[in-house]
Automatic annotation (TrEMBL):
The gene is rplR. This is one of the proteins that bind and probably mediate the attachment of the 5S RNA into the large ribosomal subunit, where it forms part of the central protuberance. This is Large ribosomal subunit protein uL18. GO terms for cellular component: cytosolic large ribosomal subunit. It comes from the Bacteria. Keywords: Ribonucleoprotein, Ribosomal protein, RNA-binding, rRNA-binding. It holds the Pfam family Ribosomal_L18p. GO terms for biological process: translation. GO terms for molecular function: 5S rRNA binding; structural constituent of ribosome. Part of the 50S ribosomal subunit; part of the 5S rRNA/L5/L18/L25 subcomplex. Contacts the 5S and 23S rRNAs. Belongs to the universal ribosomal protein uL18 family.
Length: 119
C-alpha cells in the first residue's frame, strides 16, 4: 500500500471511533464535554455545551508555546483546569475524540483530575 492510502485508512478508522464515542456522550452547561485534539506538533482542548452549541472554555498548546508530549500535556491541562474553574465548571465528560486513551491523551485526562476537575 502507498503511504497516502495508509494515512487515509488511519483517518477513516479514527472517524469511525469518533462517531462511536460521540454517540454515547453529550455535554450540557453543568457538565460540558471536554474534547481533545492532538496533532504531531500541538494539543488543544475545549469544553463544549452540546445543548446550546457553544464552547465554554478552550486551550491550545501553541498559544502557550508548548509542543505535544506527556509533560507538556500536564501543563496544558493545568491551564485548562484553571479556565474551567473560573467558568464555574467542576465536572466534565471526557471525549477522547477517537484517539486511544494512552500517552498524551491519558496524561491530559489524569492531569485534569489532579487539578480538581471530575471526569
Amino acid at each position: 500500500m502507498s503511504r497516502a492510502k495508509d494515512i487515509a485508512k488511519k483517518n477513516s478508522l479514527r472517524a469511525i471511533r469518533k462517531k462511536r464515542v460521540r454517540g454515547n456522550i453529550k455535554g450540557t452547561a453543568q457538565t460540558p464535554r471536554v474534547t481533545v485534539f492532538k496533532s504531531n506538533k500541538y494539543l488543544s482542548a475545549q469544553a463544549i455545551d452540546d445543548v446550546a452549541g457553544v464552547t465554554l472554555a478552550a486551550v491550545n498548546s501553541k498559544a502557550l508555546g508548548l509542543n505535544v508530549n506527556k509533560d507538556n500535556a500536564v501543563k496544558v491541562a493545568a491551564t485548562f483546569a484553571e479556565s474551567l474553574k473560573s467558568a464555574g465548571i467542576e465536572t466534565v465528560v471526557f471525549d477522547r475524540n477517537g484517539y486511544l486513551y494512552h500517552g498524551v491523551v491519558a496524561a491530559f485526562a489524569d492531569a485534569l483530575r489532579d487539578n480538581g476537575i471530575k471526569l
